[in-house]
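Researcher: I've got a protein sequence and the SMILES for pyridoxal-5'-phosphate. Could you write out the 3D structure of the bound complex as structure tokens? I'd like something to compare against our soaking experiments later this week.
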Amino acid sequence: MQPKELVQLAEQFGSPLYVYDADKIKFQYNRLTSAFSKVKQLRVNYAVKALSNVAVLQLLKSMGSGLDTVSIQEVQLGLHAGFPLEKIIYTPNGVSFEEIEEVATLGVQINIDNLSVLEHFGTKHPKVPVCIRINPHVMAGGNTNISVGHIDSKFGISIHQLPHLLRIVENTGMHINGIHMHTGSDILDIEVFLYAAEILFDTAKHFKELDFLDFGSGFKVPYKKDDIETDIEELGKKLSKRFNAFEKEYGRELTLAFEPGKFLVSESGFFLAKVNVVKQTTSTVFAGIDSGFNHLIRPMFYGSQHHIENISNPKGKERFYSVVGYICETDTFANNRKIAEIKEGDLLCFRNAGAYCFSMASNYNSRYKPAEVLWIDGKGILIRERETFEDLLKNQVMIEL
Ligand SMILES: Cc1ncc(COP(=O)(O)O)c(C=O)c1O
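Model: Sure. Here is the predicted complex with pyridoxal-5'-phosphate in place.
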């Protein structure tokens, strides 16, 4: 998208504003499916948690995507967006047994990542097909908060507990139809991913009636020019070959599944915020925007570095700024970042604002959540209205004194 178009959208819909480029989402979806075109049955289940706006879900559905969900509410959002039950997989962690049962009763594929839950579920519902999430204990992921495959992780059933797992399956007579892993986000090295995949193949050999193998996600996307990213084409070539060979060896048709969030939507997103104040101190020039970590928490939460441009003055001379929010705590988006000269009232654009941005937004400091716009066929469509005071009060109950 061009800076001019973004400025125009902020004028039309106000700021702060999230904008998503539908073409970029389509491009990434097609890139992934092309990379794995040699696999007969491929399933891409978009990870709803990354960006859960129903219009975005509808868009992904129109491309043929399925959904990866982690809560019953995400399942319901998917159904609301028109996804059929059989295109949704549910991969919870630490949720109640009742919720798992409820989702299974709907007819959604469930993925269990805990031995006690597996035993309980298998005893009560031996006929319901279940996928098992294993933890291959392979360290991947750019940050400890998003690395989930290591030995200390709470996710998945440890590969070292395979004998116990097999005993539960045998004793309950339950039907295991899929094996899953997700080692973490921001995978830099595809060899590590392929190594984890071998563990998944080895595990799969213990189960005779599998329909799919789910390799999770964690593909790294670039955050700035020349940044490293997962080489999806290379991964596609290598993993497809290995998968096809495994399928032959296994002797039964298998679907290869992925569940990308970031890869599909991160780069499609732009977060636009207006500069309220430029504050020169003795050591720093702060650009204070009309937003904060209530709307975009990733820099404070993960230390993620979103590229920031001044789209009101894109050709201006570059100066150093610390970009900060209005929350009454440390609220820093960037420290001493080179940005084209900023004046009060200018519009800043944060890149890679598609994944884990709006979906992690809150009302902290009693601020409204921003509006969301989908840029599609050359125009911006409002896909979520900006909140109002009524939204803040909704569900609150005043008392009589
Ligand atoms: C089980 C599972 N699958 C998929 C994803 C999506 O990962 P990413 O956004 O890195 O593609 C996550 C992210 O947390 C996850 O926990």
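Model: The first strand starts at residue 17 and ends at 21. The CA atoms of residues 225 and 307 lie 9 Å apart.
Researcher: Great, I'll pass this along to the crystallography team.
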